[in-house]
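In the laboratory, one determines a bound structure by crystallizing the protein with its ligand and collecting diffraction data. In a computational setting the workflow is compressed into a single prediction: the sequence and the ligand go in, and a structural description comes out. We illustrate the idea with nicotinamide-adenine-dinucleotide.
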Amino acid sequence: NRIYRIAVIPGDGIGKETVPEGVRVLEAAAKKYGFELRPDHFDFASCDYYQRHGQMMPDDWKARIGGHDAIFFGAVGWPKVVPDHVSLWGSLILFRREFSQYVNLRPVRLMPGVPCPLVGRKPGDIDFYVVRENTEGEYSSVGGRMFQDTEREVVIQETVMSRTGVDRILKFAFDLAEARPKKHLTSATKSNGISITMPYWDERVEAMAKHYPGVRWDKYHIDILTANFVLHPDWFDVVVGSNLFGDILSDLGPACTGTIGIAPSGNINPERDFPSLFEPVHGSAPDIAGRGIANPIGQIWSAAMMLDHLGEPEAAAAIVRAIERVLAEQKLRTRDLGGAADTVACGKAVAEMLD
Ligand code: NAD
Ligand code: IPM
Ligand code: MN
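The predicted complex, in structure-token form:
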């Protein structure tokens, strides 16, 4: 019946400026493509909420958003009032873990007309996906502090890799690679130095690759992989990494395409037992928040990923085409891309360019 109930959570900082532009474009797409959006707006998962209630979310947060078809999210973090690990472990990281959104899918694409910081690169040269493990790995709650505030103080945080957790992200990444024309997968590792978990990751990659004879695959240690993102971005098609490596690569990749302000992401639960969450890769940008100058494209492209996930691929593709048209015109681009348009002007331009 093409009615979608969306939990809309702007969060903090520029999330409050970019989310309305995402919703604007979603509503324009709904009108054009004949589906209905039922947005529910929530003020929790924000540091404002924390200041009022002493916690990031109400106790029944799961019941309040767990039944929606998807979550449309801005960004969380206002470190002047709440320490980042408190605000993020109390919201976004909880969503990812509790809703089993174990895939963080982050496309990296050089768009036509956007100035590329890497000399001589043109659209088509940079067009790949970072597939980030999103529920375990280096982001673990296993560890602790001992001998606090003494000379003997020790802090430990374990990396957790479960067979289920590693295999399911690798399977998603190989499936994606198999469906793409280049059929190429790159694994991010560090098995030369991290001598238990990373060799395990490599083993599981090798085992999974056996099920995908049509996929060409390779692996790089994370240090040289970051160098190759800059020197040879054309080498990559699907890049799969652990939670931390994927986090780093998914800021570096978009930076190589001109700005992190356009990068989208899907925090996906492929089994659809829970809602998936769509958000830009960037954060709340306290340095520019409140000025109406943030780039809304990362948020809007995330809306397109959400529609794709909900089963509206035509509308999703139309949004991406509109983004390309807007980015091709300097006067419609925001400042991070050398333009002078503000957040609202850029968002409106995308909504108007929908075909
Ligand atoms: P950030 O992504 O917020 O900002 C990094 C730099 O990029 C800043 O100079 C910012 O102005 C710029 N930038 C980011 N998005 C932009 C946009 N759309 N348009 C124009 N410029 C943009 O990263 P940070 O400074 O490391 O973190 C700030 C806060 O956000 C912290 O509290 C952090 O924990 C949080 N954070 C949240 C998320 C999330 O909710 N998913 C992601 C990253 C960081
Ligand atoms: C991201 C962010 C988060 C992460 C932070 C804010 C916890 O950087 O979504 O990439 O590290 O996952
Ligand atoms: Mn990040």
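The radius of gyration is 20 Å. Keep in mind that any predicted model is a hypothesis to be tested, not a measurement.
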